Amino acid sequence: MARRSMREEIVEAALAQFHERGFNAAAVKDITDRAGVPKGSFYNHFESKEALAIVALERYGDGRRLGDLADKSVEPVARIRKHFEFLRDEVISFGITRGCLLGNFGTEIVDHSEPIRIGVRTGLEMWSGLLAGAITEGQEAGGIRKDLNADQTARYLLSAWEGTLIQARAYKSTEPFESFFSITFASLFKG
Fold it and tell me: Which residues contact 98 (CB under 8 A, 6 or more apart)?
C-alpha cells in the first residue's frame, strides 16, 4: 500500500491536533511530529499554520457527512435526526473531549484571524444551507411545522447544537444531547 503524500500526512495530523488541542495549543512542531515528517517540510506545503487551519476546516467538513442531509431517499425529519445522531455518537466515541471544529475555532480564533473567520463562516453557511433544504422538504412533506422559517431554524439548530456540545464537554455528560433531541424533535418538528 502506497504511503499518503507528505501534505496529506500533515493535514490529517493537523486536523487531529486542532480538534484535540485547539488552534493556539497545536504548534507546527506538534503537527509535524504527529505526521512523522520533518518540521521544515511543513513550509513546502503551507505558508502558515493559519493556511493549514483553513484546509483542516475543509477536511473536517468533508467528514461530517453533510451530504446525508440532501439524501432524498430518507424522510427529511429522519435525515436530520440521523445527522445529529451521527455527530453525537462521534463526540461520545472520543469520550466527550472534542466539540465541533467549527465551533471550537469560532470561539477560539475567529476574532484574531480573518481567513479562519471566513473559513468558519463558510462551513457554517454550507451546513446551515443543507439543513434548511431538509427542513423545507420536511415542511412540504408535512413532517415539520410550516410556520418555521427554514433558514432561521437551520441557524438556530446549529447554535443549539454548538451549545449542546459545550455543555456536554463541561459536564462530561450525555444529558445535554438528550435535551437537544427531545426539544428539537418534539417541539420544533412534528416527528
Answer: 19, 20, 91, 104
